[in-house]
């Protein structure tokens, strides 16, 4: 099949590399406002370059991958749907929840699949964790712990436009908690601190946060995030039930150092970047998209899924700022 890529920044170029290695993909068509980025992709992956999203949609593509800036997501999703072309779009659906809801309304009833990029759903550890929950082998769940710690913060300009750590970073934890447990979040309480880069505090954001999520069956989820984790990129999950407990991410590249005597775990070089930690997950995610394009599977992460994670991020952001518990219904109705 022929896949179009809109946006060739860091993640767009990474997707181009991944797609070029998939057996199902015969050719790529790319576009980016920066001609040098498009030219580099053409030279590296043999892609065809066009000068606009309109030209790309008219280039006979079977599916499109939207990796452009967040502000462009709504228009590009809708353009793909109007053209009848399956869409893969990196999260978020839109910069604000109100815009995201409008996108959802606009595509409802259209027979064009849309997949939003939440790559942890394709990581083998998280897939196995979901299967363990679904099988009942853990018994009734009581506690979930989810962690995302970045080795260093992104640039100041990115932080200023990110919408805050809950919307930009923690939202991955929120999505994977929903997906693994199969439950919805009803209430949150969030705290945050600033002990690192000054530009994060100046942007009105926190660099380290904690959130307690109450799920609709009474399970408690604890989410921990930070922009500063010198040892590496740390993504883990623990799921505790009345019968058994399991963990995702306890492997030799875990960026954590044990100080127990005689313990050599973890023994490997720590993960230091999200593309390193989730290389295979990204490949599985885009392989799934080719199956969506081929019509052999439904979207594994819909706009509705992405918006649900977004509402949790909104609730945590409000909770942090107002120092109180916040229900999901409160932000949904605001």
From TrEMBL:
Protein name: Myo-inositol 2-dehydrogenase/D-chiro-inositol 1-dehydrogenase
Keyword Iron appears in the UniProt entry: no
Alphabetized InterPro entries for the sequence: Gfo/Idh/MocA-like_OxRdtase_N, GFO_IDH_MocA-like_dom, NAD(P)-bd_dom_sf
Catalytic EC class: oxidoreductase
Species name: Streptomyces caelestis
Chain ranges of the GFO/IDH/MocA-like oxidoreductase domain: 127-243
Sample GO molecular function, one term: nucleotide binding
Gfo/Idh/MocA-like oxidoreductase N-terminal domain: residues covered: 1-118
EC number per UniProt: 1.1.1.18, 1.1.1.369
The family this protein is said to belong to: Belongs to the Gfo/Idh/MocA family.
Keyword line: Oxidoreductase
Keyword Oxidoreductase appears in the UniProt entry: yes
Domain of life the protein comes from: Bacteria
């Amino acid at each position: 099949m022929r896949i179009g890529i809109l946006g060739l920044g860091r993640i767009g170029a990474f997707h181009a590399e991944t797609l070029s290695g998939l057996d199902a993909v015969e050719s790529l068509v790319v576009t980016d406002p920066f001609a040098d980025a498009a030219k580099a992709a053409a030279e590296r992956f043999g892609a065809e370059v066009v000068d606009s999203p309109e030209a790309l949609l008219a280039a006979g593509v079977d599916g499109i991958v939207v990796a452009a800036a967040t502000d462009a997501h709504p228009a590009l999703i809708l353009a793909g749907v109007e053209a009848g072309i399956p869409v893969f779009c990196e999260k978020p659906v839109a910069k604000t929840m109100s815009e995201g809801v409008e996108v959802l309304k606009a595509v409802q009833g259209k027979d064009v699949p849309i997949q939003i990029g939440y790559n942890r759903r394709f990581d083998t550890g998280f897939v196995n964790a979901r299967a363990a929950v679904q099988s009942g082998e853990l018994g009734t769940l009581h506690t979930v712990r989810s962690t995302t710690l970045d080795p260093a913060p992104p640039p100041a300009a990115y932080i200023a436009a990110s919408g805050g750590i809950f919307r930009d970073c923690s939202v991955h934890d929120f999505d994977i908690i929903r997906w693994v447990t199969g439950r919805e979040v009803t209430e949150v309480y969030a705290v945050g601190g600033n002990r690192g880069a000054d530009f994060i505090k100046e942007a009105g954001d926190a660099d380290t946060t904690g959130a307690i999520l109450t799920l609709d069956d009474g399970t408690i989820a604890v989410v921990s995030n930070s922009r500063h984790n010198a040892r590496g990129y740390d993504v883990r999950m623990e799921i505790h039930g009345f019968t058994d407990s399991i963990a995702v991410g306890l492997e030799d590249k875990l960026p954590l150092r044990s100080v127990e005597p005689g313990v050599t775990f973890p023994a490997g070089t720590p993960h230091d970047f999200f593309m390193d930690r989730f290389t295979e997950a990204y490949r599985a995610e885009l392989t799934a998209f080719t199956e969506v394009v081929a019509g052999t599977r439904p979207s594994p992460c819909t706009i509705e899924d992405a918006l649900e994670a977004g509402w949790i991020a909104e609730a945590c952001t409000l909770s942090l700022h107002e120092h109180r518990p916040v229900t999901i219904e409160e932000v949904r109705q605001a």
